[in-house]
Amino acid sequence: MRPLPRGSKKNRGISLGLLALCLAAAGCLQSQGVSLYIPQSAINATVEEDILLSVEYSCHGVPTIEWKYTSNWGAQKIVEWKPGTQANISQSHKDRLCTFDNGSIQLFSVGVRDSGYYVITVTEHLGSSQFGTIVLHVSEILYEDLHFVAVFLAFLAAVAALLISLMWVCNKCAYKFQRKRRHKLRESATEDIELQDVEC
């Protein structure tokens, strides 16, 4: 086997150097990607509560943050902003949404209509992006219904107590009536016997 000429070794070294440089550049570009962390992916709330949809992201540069709301009735963008700038909030969420520079949003006085999926997308200026989802379930506490049930149960308890008292009184009256009747029957039987004795 013949040894390679000197020029080939030099070209091979340059090629390896370029390959290493490309790999390093690719590693740098990868390290500049967006990472997103969602501490709580499902939230249960009650009506009129203030809810924090909490997230944390990391990336190089200032990203664009967008939140979308998806429910059975469709999807809509509710807010978009860059940290440090004013947020572009949709009409449906004006005056009931607050944004934070870490990507989180807060919803004020939520209702049952706010139940659904909230999707956040964090996009870096180089084009890489990351998204995550938080599920919000808002339930309604029906104090009026509970009050009605409590009043109805109290009414039933009062009616039951009244019926038990009436039954007790009726039972006492029936017992006294039977005693009087027996006493009268005994008296009439005694009179009949006395009359029979007199006739004899």
Automatic annotation (TrEMBL):
Domain Immunoglobulin: 40-139
Biological-process GO terms, alphabetical: filopodium assembly; positive regulation of excitatory synapse assembly
Membrane topology according to the record: Single-pass type I membrane protein
Signal peptide, first to last residue: 1-31
Cellular localisation: Cell membrane; Cell projection, Axon; Cell projection, Dendrite
Ranges that cross the membrane: 146-170
Keywords: Cell membrane, Cell projection, Developmental protein, Glycoprotein, Membrane, Signal, Transmembrane, Transmembrane helix
Keyword Glycoprotein: yes
A cellular-component GO term for this protein: axon
UniProt superkingdom: Eukaryota
Pfam family, one: Receptor_2B4
PANTHER family associated with the record: SIGNALING LYMPHOCYTIC ACTIVATION MOLECULE, V-SET AND TRANSMEMBRANE DOMAIN-CONTAINING PROTEIN 5
Function (record text): Cell adhesion-like membrane protein of the central nervous system (CNS) which modulates both the position and complexity of central neurons by altering their membrane morphology and dynamics. Involved in the formation of neuronal dendrites and protrusions including dendritic filopodia. In synaptogenesis, regulates synapse formation by altering dendritic spine morphology and actin distribution. Promotes formation of unstable neuronal spines such as thin and branched types. Regulates neuronal morphogenesis and migration during cortical development in the brain.
Record protein name field: V-set and transmembrane domain-containing protein 5
